[in-house]
């Protein structure tokens, strides 16, 4: 179940990815905490910290169970990413993640070459699957942390939504599409769609290959839009991510 939560939280957060027409500025460091609710019950929290040093970025993120769920079910997902800030946005160079779920643990590392994760290492090693895909063929994708960092980069309100991004996490490739923004009170709401592309079990692709979401942005005093909420239906009830004030 925790792996499903990881994908769900990642999809909700990265649904903000295409909101940015570029990326964080060279001095636009990110230090953010989001709370994750499932069916109205607090299930976890997500932190993202990133620093920009000239054209180099480094980011760390931790997703862990919390609240009532955390009292009875301990699990965590820690990841880090680094890369370059280019005119086209963030370009990853390395991604590493450690997941822990009760007595199980796994580490994954991706090294990028020519904008593709040419080398993927896992400990313990991934079990071979008929539906697995070649990492070297995932050119142009972002790792989950770089994608989430792009989502969190404040951007001009007029630039949010109407775009798409593809993500590769070491085994699976998926896309997040954002549609036309509309005003929802004093916030900007963007319809989002999580699409499974490849690397998933055939029954998952057949049962539910797409998940619709909505993402809300708030224009702050600096004139830029910040992601404050994401929500959508899940197999566990309504899933919501809220920016912690």
Architecture overview:
With 245 residues, the chain is mainly β. The protein is 14% helix and 54% strand. The protein has helices at 2-14, 67-72, 144-152, 202-207; strands spanning 30-38, 41-53, 56-65, 75-86, 89-101, 104-113, 116-123, 155-156, 163-168, 173-178, 182-184, 187-198, 210-219, 224-234, 237-243. It has a 15-stranded antiparallel beta sheet that branches. A hairpin with a 2-residue loop joins strand 4 (75-86) and strand 5 (89-101). The relative contact order is 0.20. Residues 1-5 and 15-26 have low confidence and may be disordered.
Summary, kept brief:
The protein is 14% helix and 54% strand. It has 245 residues and is mainly beta. A hairpin with a 4-residue loop joins strand 9 (163-168) and strand 10.
Give the tags.
245 residues, mainly beta, 15 strands, disordered N terminus
How is the secondary structure organized here?
Elements: H1 2-14, E1 30-38, E2 41-53, E3 56-65, H2 67-72, E4 75-86, E5 89-101, E6 104-113, E7 116-123, H3 144-152, E8 155-156, E9 163-168, E10 173-178, E11 182-184, E12 187-198, H4 202-207, E13 210-219, E14 224-234, E15 237-243
Mean pLDDT: 83
Principal-axes shape call:
globular
> SSE order, as H and E?
HEEEHEEEEHEEEEEHEEE
Strand content: over 45%
**How many alpha or pi helices?**
4
Report the strand count: 15
Structural class: mainly beta
User: What is the distance, rounded to the nearest whole angstrom, between the alpha carbons of the first and last residues?
Assistant: 28 Å
Helix content: 10-25%
Instruction: Summarize the biggest pleated sheet.
Output: 15 strands, antiparallel
The low-confidence runs, each spanning 5 or more residues with pLDDT under 50, are 1-5, 15-26
The value of Rg in angstroms is: 17 Å
**Oligomer description:** single chain
